Description:
Blueprint: H1 4-17, E1 32-34, E2 37-39, E3 58-60, E4 68-69, E5 82-84, E6 92-93, E7 106-108, E8 131-133, E9 154-156, E10 164-165, E11 178-180, E12 188-189, E13 202-204, E14 215-218, E15 225-227, E16 238-240, E17 246-248, E18 256-257, H2 259-262, E19 270-272, E20 280-281, E21 294-296, E22 315-317, E23 325-326, E24 339-341, E25 349-350, E26 363-365, E27 373-374, E28 387-389, E29 397-398, E30 411-413, E31 422-423, E32 436-438, H3 443-450, H4 453-457, E33 464-466, E34 488-490, E35 496-497, H5 503-511, E36 524-526
Parallel strand pairs: 2-3, 3-5, 4-6, 5-7, 7-8, 8-9, 9-11, 10-12, 11-13, 13-15, 14-16, 15-17, 17-19, 18-20, 19-21, 21-22, 22-24, 23-25, 24-26, 26-28, 27-29, 28-30, 29-31, 30-32, 32-33, 33-34, 35-36
Antiparallel strand pairs: 1-2
Amino acid sequence: MRHFWLLLLLLLTAAASGYTSRTTSRCSRLCHCYYQSLFCRGYNYNSIPADVGSDVENIDFQDNNLQEISNETLAKFPDLRKLLLGGNNISNIDEGAFRKQKLLNALDLSANRLSKIPVMAFDPIRKKLEHLTLQGNSIVKIEGTFQRMRVLKTLNLKDNKIQLLTAETLFQNRKIRYLQLADNEIDYISPDSLKRQTELKYLFLDNNNLENVTVFKIPSKKLQSVSLSNCQLKEIPTGVSRTVQQLNLAGNRLTLLEENNISMFKSLQSLDLSRNLLANISERAFRPLLKLKLLYLGTNQLQEVPKKLPGELQQITLDHNRISDLPKEAFVKVKRLQALTLKNNMIEYIHKKTFSGLTELRTLDLSSNVITRISSNLFSDLVGLKDLYLSHNPLLIIDSGAMDGLWSLDTLSLDNMDKSVRTQGVLLPDSPQLRTLNIQNSRSITRSLLENDLQMYSLKSVEYLNIMQNNLRTLPATFPQFLPNLQRIQLSSNPWNCNRHLYWLRVWLVNGGVEEPHLLHITCDLPKHLKGRQLIDLDAYDWVSSDPEYI
């Protein structure tokens, strides 16, 4: 079954090329053949079987034990168009290894043991080869190797030991669209190394040491994505084409962002600046980025929400910073915002108008802050909000009407509120779409909910409920009646009193069609003679009569 999709792909490729009318003259008895395609994957063979027909066009010989490509290895296959040799133990390629493969279009040599490639090894296939993968080898130098490969479109050199990139590396290559150089040891890139790549669309240089690289010359007007994450950059390199739509600078050492740092990227739609050392962002920094939709600023040292955010933004992540308050004007310009992440900050104060006008917001994460109060109507404009996360906050007060307006809410997380929360009025929103409610380790909230039938009625649409770690001893027998749509519940880590008043719970969990993923962890704390016993293991004789203890 694992070969099915590859078989189908090769079949369609053959059909499109007009080669579906004949099959290979001979197929090895040790492999599988389909039309002009040979499949010998994962057999630990040391060589391509000798009985394969010479007219084969596609060979999949991945995950075997081929140790070299000599002048004779492929000599009998002049019609080869696609050759997959990834996952072997190839450490040597003879200079004339591909001298007969004038039609080869795609070559995969990934995950082998190559440390060098002869300068002229790919010269015989330079006129047809469009896709070359050398990922996962130990190649150090590539100067001269690809100079004459003028039709190459895809070049994958990820996870090697390449140390530098110069103007000679890709001298005559002008067709490359996808260039993957991530996870190497590159510490020098000459400014002119990519200036001839006028067709380049995607460039990946992640996880290299580019601390001293400040200038790129990438004039390609087709460039769409540049990824420079984890490169030790202290400033944003200049010279990158203005057509870039996605720029990944995560995991670097940027400390300051000003307008002139990113003003050239006027077509930018996605900007990732997470995991840097940003403490200050100029008020005008994002002014030129009128098309920006996705902005990632998590795990920095920001103390406030950046000002004058672009109006087209749909997603902002500001998690793991040092933001302490959310003023009225924080998001006043971003009316199209759909996702806002502010978890793991130091937020204590939220202005009652902070979220005004964000009618398109779908996800809001305020978890793991120091919020002590949720004011009335704080979320009243968030009529389209689907997911609200407030967990891990030391809440003391939830005002009456705090959840008003959340008509579309699907997921509500109020777990790990270890303080005694005082609720005023109805706690949960009257949302007919509420499917998921997490109040684990939130005792006062759980108590307010379970002791009030009106509150319980708001659970009628809930499909998943988590009430673990709430010091619960019992539940009323009417509990299931308020949850007609419940499919999954979590009840463990509570000190249950397994008296006759809780017998219904065992029956419900075993026969009620409700899933409890930790069913075996629901144990009795009382009576003493049943302490530690699993609830579902108790039979009718174990249940004893005692006064009910509700919470």
